[in-house]
Structure formats: structure tokens, C-alpha cells
Protein: LCP family protein
Organism: Brachybacterium kimchii
Amino acid sequence: MSDPTDLPEGTGAVSPRRRRWRGVLIALLIVAALVATGGIIVGRYMHSLDSAYQKRTTVSLDKGSSDGDRKAGGSGQNILLLGSDKRSAQDAGSEGVSGQRSDAMMLVHIPADGGEAYIVSFPRDLYIDIPGHGKDRINSALAYGGLPLAVTTVENYTKTPIDHVALIDFDGIEGLVDSLGGVDVNVPESFERGGTTFTAGTQHLNGKEALTFSRERKHLSGGDFARNQNQQQLLKAVAMKLISGDTLSSPGKMRDTVTALSPYLTTDDGLTSQAIVKLGLSNRNLRGSDLHFLAAPHGDPATTSGGASVVASDEKGMDALRTALKEDNMEEYAKQIAD
């Protein structure tokens, strides 16, 4: 890789000293909730669940050149999931950006034949081109242009079309996890934060603890990369609880889950209740073992000429991922990178 100091200064780059503790939301919980909600339960209790779901915010996504080309015969579905820090106006102004940044970004690929899901996580500091704003961290796209620009940025980078997008801010974590009665998380590394001790191994977390667990990075040996691993562990735990038999068989629990999630959720206007039902029915047999968590290829940590800490891209590795997404061959891709 070239000398990190050769990287140009990013527009709106944020110094680590100026970052506050911000949440990193579990993005898969959105898909897990939607898939679980989209099964038989929705058919029986559509009215109450639909009323809760309508509390979300919607945005329109324009289809254009960034959508890329689909392989003939279908290439599955791609859903972009974002977790937002939703900073205050004062914080946003001091950092030279507006709105919110995506502190968690995952691309979920559901193959055309269904039955599995591949969840690819992107480092929040990945240094790539943001259309109209030059090179910057990938998480700045949301601040510069909301969900439409975030979608376009990822479509350009992955060279694959995105069918739907969903965003949730971290204020929704506590209510969601608590509505599930807590979750059992595999803690990779012991640490202490906010008066809570997280011990390596399986640990039951309530909503407040889950939020703290997903936000921590400075007390972890791997920093942001270790935090990404923690987020994935929390995602797995939430997904397992959502698709467990007792949750799916309880209309009350599903209603409470959707009610807790919806006020913090923003989706594209195409992700309607009907679309969710269709998605859920086509993936109603999805189980925890069918969820495959992957990390997007990336280079080493680097520093821009302006002193901003970023993560370099890995174009060779990304080309392999781009091909797998385009050809709907993520199963083979996952096997290759695991070898």
C-alpha cells in the first residue's frame, strides 16, 4: 500500500479526539425483524403490526447509473442496512457536517434461491469516493446527502444495485433488546465500560448493556475492528432471538418488537408492508446457521495528509466481492475467503 500520508485530506474528516461515544447500531436486526414479521404471523395479525410499522420514516430513492447491471436471470436482493449516531446539532456543527453519520454499515445479499443471507460489514472509516464530495470516510455519505447519497456511494463502490435501504438510530437499541427480554451474546473479549463488566464467553445483556457493548472500541485491543466483531455478535444474538420459535409464535412479542423498532426506523418507500410480507414468506425457513457474516475487503489503517485517521481500500479484494455480488455467487466467495 502507498504511504498513508499520501492520502489527500478528506472533506469533513473528523479527528478522533473530537469523537464522542456514539452508538453503532446493529443493522441486521432490521432485516431479522422484517423477515420474522413477514412470515405467518403477519398474515394473521397484519393490522396491528402494520399500524406499528407505519410509524417509520420513508425516503425515495432514484434509480440511475449507480444501480449497476444485473446478471440475466436475476441476482438476488441487496439491502443496505445502516446504524446512525444521530449526533446533536451542536456536535454536527463543530465537526463541519450536518445530519448524522452511519456508524454501522452492512450490505445484506439474499441469493435468488433464498434460504441464506450474506451480511457484509464495511469499516466506518473506509476512505473512498463520496459522489460530489471527493474522498472521505464512507460513513460521511449519510451526513452529506442522507440515505440517497449513502445508497449511491455503496452502489458505486460495490458496483451492484441496492434494492432497499433501512436505517435505525441507536436510541432504538435499548427498547428493541428489552422487548425481546434481553439477548445472549458471545463476548469475544473481556472489558469494562459504563459500570458493566463484559466477560469473554456467553453473557445475557439487557437493552442498556447491549448498547454499551455495541459502542465500545477504546477498551478493545483491536479498536474499531474489534468493535465491528462485537456488533456482529450482537446481531447474531438479536437475529437468533427474533427467529426463535417463542418469538415467532407470540403475536404480542412481535407487536412489541415492531412497536419498539419503528419510531427509530427509516426505510425507502418501496419497503412497504406488502414487500416485507413477500420477503418474509420467501425466507420463512431462515435460521441462525443460514446467516453468514463477512467483512468487506479493506487495507490498513492510514492517515490523510490533513491528519485524519482512515482505513485504506483494497481494490483487488473488492473486485472479487463485486463479481460475487453481481453473479449471485456469494456462497463460493465466502468459502474462498475462509480458506
Notes: DSSP finds twelve helices and 15 strands in the chain. The CA atoms of residues 100 and 143 lie 5 Å apart.
